[in-house]
Amino acid sequence: MTTTMLDMKEVITSLQNNGIRDKVRVIIGGVPITQEFADEIGADAWGKDAFDAVEKAKKLMEKPLEVA
Predict the structure, then answer these.
(1) In whole angstroms, what is the distance from residue 37 CA to residue 50 CA?
(2) Residue 25 pLDDT > 80, yes or no?
(3) pLDDT of residue 31
């Protein structure tokens, strides 16, 4: 685990605490990141590298956010 992994969870928690989590998508990534970790912290997607993250972002953008 890297120190940035802890920050990833903190960012998602901050988005939740400020009432804007449903208005943004969170994609995390890096060598130590797994789907399990992404699910655990509530990320919308993860990428094993930048190229993978771009593909995941494209797929996420196909579905509009449902913001009231």
Answers:
(1) 18
(2) yes
(3) 86
pTM: 0.83
Domain assignment of residue 10, yes or no: no
Nearby residues of 32 by Cβ (< 8 Å), 6 or more positions away = 1, 2, 5
* Residue 39 in domain: yes
SS (H, E, C) 19-48: CCHHHCCCEEECCCCCHHHHHHHCCCEEEC
Number of domains making up the chain: 1
Q: Would 56 be classed as within a structural domain?
A: yes
Q: Is residue 19 part of a domain?
A: no
Q: What pLDDT does residue 67 have?
A: 64
The answer to whether the Cα torsion of 56, 59, 65, 66 is positive or negative is negative
